[in-house]
């Protein structure tokens, strides 16, 4: 059986023709209206994102300590050299990549399952079910981090006593006493919190799969699994990629959970945490800005990698096809 | 029409927002000048003192309190960020002593007038005077002083033969806990409290973490972490961690006070807040009176037998913001805040020990805090944490290398940390 996918962009014929020399007056008017409508938002975005980013890039070239403002000096790329030659940067980078890969992979599988459940649930319980699945996403990350920390902590936690029948878990298992156990709890909390987000995006993708194709496959005698692999997933590839991209960008900036649970102990520091510590705790604005800029570059690389490598069409997320 | 209704609703919203905005800038309030006092969170004692001093000023000023974050490090971060932007709204601040040199060095503190300095340091415990000063000069006004004691469960110590009426050593405490198959609670978590513990051990062994604070030149800071005293301190730290119970590497003051209260630890080094905590647990019915009666206290353990220990010193001192428009009034207000009566009330209501020695012999204080004489003695012996304008870097570096304390190598951890601190201060390494 061959893969059956609907080409995006050929749907209802609303795709505007690119306005050029030969564009009609109407197309030009529409373009002008488009700029007028998007313009204010574009200016606001420049103010609230481009300006701080530019400022961070500028500060990262200076030796700038907040409590010693008389001795600010230009040092070129020295801050970047310090960061990139430091072992701590690379450990934090590895930890961040680990958390990102583990959480996004698990969330994708779980999120897909939840999306299927939401899609196929009985009409009567569908609203309740959707609300129930989305609740964790409505919880503030710091609050969820504290809740998970209390659950696993030695003095107030219940995990040790509930799961003591599992090998490796005893009444005195100190989850935050080692790197891998700490990372496990951090990943669990992240997964619990953001799976609803991914399942919401995937639900939108599922809804876009045309029923006609499903029915045709059924008539052809395809099993559930075959339909899933050959019809459903190929048709929602764009939605999957957008969900993955958004979550990867988000997961790479993980901060709150680590800050609350371990405060960076036992090599659980992430890149964002490193930026926080240099900028806010050490008040070394220059060095901290360099870490932030490197974090920004990592995120840009991930983003470009996804869009170019997997041919993600971001307009899919907005249902524009 | 739906669209028209939307537009009307939007217009109404904008108008309402504008009105609220206008009401917000309704000009300066009449009456005496307002002094903003940035306080650390407590049980309401500082707000009460603010009210009393406002009333006592006879209309000269009105003190308003603003609450800072819970962690000392976060209090420092907020104050520093505001002061770096020359915030004129900061008149008085409650500052944790180790950060005072940084504030002073950055020029964030208004100089203490000589007469205020003289009046507010009369009859003050040694450690509080030292902790309120930088470069031999008083830069803040001592308010209240804290210290850690060695707490023990009388019933559990009884059978071990350890005589708690005399000063004991860490080695004796470890042996007693091992003999009784119990644990010692100390602050093994990667946090400021780990530095507090290490500093007390190093100072008790006769050493110093920072030997030359080198004001103004971070690269000139000299460290004593490669000294025999620092090695000895690390040995004690490792030995205590080994019998510190399962959650030692994540235990803060709160976890430890719980472990001690429920009897799973027979010793703990901790601040006196635990006395108030157990007594209110008894009042609430969540603890037995017998538990509180079983609490014993003694001076912080010695590292070298016969050499008095150097217990941790903490507490709060009052700084006056350099950019405040009311420096004179603010200093007048601090004098009221730190009066003997206020220190006593604060001790009684919030359990925070006074900086003035005379408070510790007050009958009311002694009745409520039977360990007051021991606290006073401990405060006289106590040593502040390393006094340097780069305290945050020093402390964070220590926490990075000394945690988890059960896994340190006492011989190499000190020199390695000294190297890290030097590299961090030279801005050659991240933290």
UniProtKB/TrEMBL annotation, chain A:
The keyword Cell cycle does not apply. Belongs to the binding-protein-dependent transport system permease family. Keywords: Cell membrane, Membrane, Transmembrane, Transmembrane helix, Transport. GO terms for biological process: transmembrane transport. It comes from the Bacteria. The keyword Membrane applies. The chain crosses the membrane at residues 33-54, 88-116, 128-151, 175-192, 285-307. One of its GO terms (cellular component) is plasma membrane. It is a multi-pass membrane protein. Residues 1-25 are annotated as: Disordered. It comes from Pseudonocardia ammonioxydans. Gene3D superfamilies: MetI-like. Pfam families: BPD_transp_1. Residues 93-306 form the ABC transmembrane type-1 domain. This is Carbohydrate ABC transporter membrane protein 1, CUT1 family.
TrEMBL record, chain B:
One of its GO terms (molecular function) is maltose binding. Keywords: Signal, Transport. Pfam families: SBP_bac_1. GO terms for biological process: maltodextrin transmembrane transport; maltose transport. Residues 1-30 form the signal peptide. It comes from the Bacteria. Transmembrane segments: none annotated. SUPFAM superfamilies: Periplasmic binding protein-like II (SSF53850). The keyword Metal-binding does not apply. GO terms for cellular component: ATP-binding cassette (ABC) transporter complex, substrate-binding subunit-containing. PANTHER family: MALTOSE-BINDING PERIPLASMIC PROTEIN (PTHR30061), MALTOSE_MALTODEXTRIN-BINDING PERIPLASMIC PROTEIN (PTHR30061:SF50). Belongs to the bacterial solute-binding protein 1 family. This is Carbohydrate ABC transporter substrate-binding protein, CUT1 family. It comes from Pseudonocardia ammonioxydans.
């Amino acid at each position: 059986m061959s893969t059956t996918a609907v080409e995006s962009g050929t749907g209802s014929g609303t795709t505007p023709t690119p306005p050029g020399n030969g564009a009609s007056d109407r197309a030009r008017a529409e373009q002008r209206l488009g700029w007028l409508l998007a313009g204010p938002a574009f200016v606001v975005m420049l103010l609230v994102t481009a300006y701080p980013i530019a400022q961070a890039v500028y500060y990262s070239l200076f030796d700038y300590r907040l409590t010693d403002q008389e001795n600010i000096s230009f040092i070129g790329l020295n801050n970047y050299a310090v960061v990139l030659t430091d072992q701590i940067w690379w450990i934090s980078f590895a930890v961040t990549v680990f958390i990102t890969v583990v959480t996004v992979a698990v969330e994708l599988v779980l999120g897909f399952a939840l999306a299927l459940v939401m899609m196929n649930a009985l009409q009567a319980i569908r609203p309740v079910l959707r609300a129930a699945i989305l609740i964790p996403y409505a919880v503030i990350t710091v609050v969820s981090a504290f809740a998970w920390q209390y659950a696993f902590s030695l003095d107030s936690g219940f995990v040790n006593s509930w799961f003591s029948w599992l090998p490796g878990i005893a009444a005195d298992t100190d989850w935050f006493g080692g790197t891998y156990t700490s990372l496990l709890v951090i990943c669990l909390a992240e997964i619990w919190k953001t799976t609803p987000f991914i399942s919401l995006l995937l639900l939108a993708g599922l809804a876009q799969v045309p029923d006609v194709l499903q029915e045709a496959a059924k008539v052809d005698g395809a099993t559930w699994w075959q339909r899933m692999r050959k019809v459903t997933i190929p048709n929602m590839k764009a939605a999957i990629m957008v969900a993955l991209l958004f979550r990867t960008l988000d997961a790479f900036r993980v901060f709150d959970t680590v800050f609350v649970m371990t405060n960076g102990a036992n090599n659980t520091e992430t890149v964002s945490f490193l930026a926080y510590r240099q900028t806010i705790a050490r008040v070394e604005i220059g060095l901290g800005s360099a870490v932030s800029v490197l974090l920004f570059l990592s995120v840009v690389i991930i983003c470009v990698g996804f869009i170019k490598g997997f041919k993600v069409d971001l307009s899919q997320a907005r249902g524009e096809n | 029409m739906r669209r028209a209704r939307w537009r009307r609703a939007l217009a109404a919203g904008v108008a309402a927002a504008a009105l609220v905005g206008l009401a917000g800038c309704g000009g300066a309030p009449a009456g005496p000048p307002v002094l903003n006092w940035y306080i650390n969170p407590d049980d309401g004692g500082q707000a009460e003192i603010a009210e009393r001093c406002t009333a006592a000023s006879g209309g000269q000023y009105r003190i308003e309190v603003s609450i800072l974050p819970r962690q000392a490090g976060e209090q420092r971060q907020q104050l520093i960020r505001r002061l770096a932007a020359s915030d004129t709204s900061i008149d008085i601040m409650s500052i944790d002593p180790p950060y005072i040199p940084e504030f002073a060095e950055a020029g964030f503190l208004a100089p203490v007038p000589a007469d205020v300095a003289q009046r507010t340091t009369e009859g003050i415990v040694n450690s509080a005077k030292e902790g309120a000063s930088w470069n031999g000069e008083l830069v803040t006004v001592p308010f209240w002083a804290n210290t850690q004691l060695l707490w023990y469960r009388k019933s559990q110590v009884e059978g071990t033969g350890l005589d708690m009426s005399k000063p004991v050593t860490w080695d004796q405490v470890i042996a007693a806990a091992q003999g009784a198959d119990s644990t010692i609670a100390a602050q093994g978590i990667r946090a400021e409290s780990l530095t507090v513990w290490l500093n007390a051990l190093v100072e008790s062994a006769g050493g110093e973490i920072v030997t030359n604070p080198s004001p103004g030149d971070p690269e000139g800071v000299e460290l004593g972490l490669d000294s025999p005293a620092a090695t000895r301190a690390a040995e004690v730290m490792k030995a205590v961690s080994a019998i510190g119970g399962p959650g030692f590497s994540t235990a803060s003051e709160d976890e430890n006070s719980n472990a001690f209260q429920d009897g799973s630890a027979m010793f703990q080094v901790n601040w006196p807040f635990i006395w108030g905590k157990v007594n209110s647990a008894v009042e609430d019915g969540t603890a037995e009176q017998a538990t509180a009666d079983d609490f014993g206290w003694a001076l912080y353990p010695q590292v070298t037998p016969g050499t008095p220990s150097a217990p941790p010193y903490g507490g709060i001192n009052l700084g006056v913001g350099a950019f405040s428009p009311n420096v004179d009034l603010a200093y007048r207000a601090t004098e009221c805040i730190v009066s003997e009566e206020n220190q006593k009330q604060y001790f009684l209501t919030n359990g925070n020990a006074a900086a003035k020695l005379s408070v510790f012999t007050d009958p009311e204080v002694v009745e409520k805090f039977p360990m007051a004489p021991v606290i006073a003695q401990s405060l006289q012996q106590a040593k502040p944490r390393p006094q340097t304008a780069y305290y945050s870097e020093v402390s964070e570096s220590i926490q990075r290398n000394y945690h988890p304390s059960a896994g340190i190598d006492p011989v190499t951890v000190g020199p390695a940390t000294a190297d890290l601190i030097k590299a961090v201060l030279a801005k050659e390494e991240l933290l």
